[in-house]
Amino acid sequence: MKPIVRKIASVTGWSLLGLFLAGTLAFSSREMNDIECREIVVKYAGNSPIRLSEREVIRLAKSAGQQIIGKKLTEVNTGMIETEVAKNKTILRADAFKSVVRDSSGFKGVVTLKVRHRTPVLRVISSQGNYYMDAKGHKIPPSVGYTADVQVATGNIRDEAAKEELIPLAAFIQKDRFWRAQIRQIHVNGTGNILFTTLVGDHLIEFGSPENMEEKFRNLRAFYDQVLAENNWNKYDRISVKYKNQVIAKKK
């Protein structure tokens, strides 16, 4: 009989433990449902030079039209928060998620916002406006809160031309170490011709249209290496690669 008694006791013990755990879990679940959001945490993804402050991101989150702090965590709509934050033109993507953490006073709810900003590749300053653009042509408003070290384009610039012509041009300059250091500014004149002002040498580069871009830069670099390198940096007023397979230099 002893083995049977031990078996009954064992089964009874496991049953009681199961009932205890079920009750504890049920209690914890009910308790968790009552936990309120007490904190909003902002995290940043990517390495864009543009970065809204945590305070501004939280302000955007709260503008979703719902209470966050003090609201039951289960009732916080993270989808609405993501949509509202992503409306800001500097932000490429916003992800919001909820978690429960424990501190010295017990459990608290936390909403974490992970924000990825757009990365500017060009700054446009013209009669059409003053703005940055990312690689896909999305406009990013300037702000005293951030600056980006990118090519600046001025003059007669239409939005479509900036997107289709100037962004590829700026990207080419940016990836080339020599031209990134030499070209100070892109300017589009009244006839649509592209001009470059330079950092070294007191001359203007007449580039023309962005067509045959790589060939024009290759010819221009050859002129720099063969002519300007011989202490001739300040002898020329204008260098033109506007016409195919030609480099025309005008002396001062």
Task: Please summarize what this structure is.
The chain is of the alpha/beta class. The chain has helices spanning 2-33, 54-62, 78-86, 159-175, 177-182, 213-228; strands at 37-45, 91-103, 106-117, 120-126, 129-134, 139-140, 151-155, 183-188, 194-198, 204-208, 236-240, 248-251.
Structural notes for this entry:
- The N and C termini lie far apart (117 Å).
- The chain has helices at 2-33, 54-62, 78-86, 159-175, 177-182, 213-228, and strands spanning 37-45, 91-103, 106-117, 120-126, 129-134, 139-140, 151-155, 183-188, 194-198, 204-208, 236-240, 248-251.
- It folds into 2 domains: 37-117, Roll (Ubiquitin-like (UB roll)), CATH 3.10.20; 120-251, Cell division protein FtsQ/DivIB (Rossmann fold), CATH 3.40.50.
- The strands form 2 sheets. Strands 6-5-4-7-8-9-10-11-12 form a 9-stranded mixed β-sheet.
- The protein contains 6 helices and 12 strands.
- With 252 residues, the chain is an alpha/beta fold.
Any chance you could write out the topology, listing elements then pairs?
Elements: H1 2-33, E1 37-45, H2 54-62, H3 78-86, E2 91-103, E3 106-117, E4 120-126, E5 129-134, E6 139-140, E7 151-155, H4 159-175, H5 177-182, E8 183-188, E9 194-198, E10 204-208, H6 213-228, E11 236-240, E12 248-251
Parallel strand pairs: 1-3, 4-7, 7-8, 10-11
Antiparallel strand pairs: 2-3, 4-5, 5-6, 8-9, 9-10, 11-12
Helix pairs in contact: 2-3
* Number of β-strand runs: 12
* CATH homology superfamily name of the largest domain: Cell division protein FtsQ/DivIB
The CATH class label of the largest domain is Alpha Beta
Q: Roughly how many Å apart are the termini?
A: 117 Å
Low-confidence stretches: 1-14, 16-27
Q: Provide the β-strand percentage band.
A: 25-35%
**Rg on CA atoms, Å:** 31 Å
As for the number of domains, it is 2
What's the main sheet like?
A: 9 strands, mixed
CATH architecture assignment name of the largest domain:
3-Layer(aba) Sandwich
Helix content: 25-40%
User: Given the helix and strand composition, which structural class is it?
Assistant: alpha/beta
The mean pLDDT is 86
What is the helix tally? 6
Kindly identify the CATH topology of the largest domain: Rossmann fold
Please tell me what the overall shape is.
elongated
Largest sheet strand order? 6-5-4-7-8-9-10-11-12
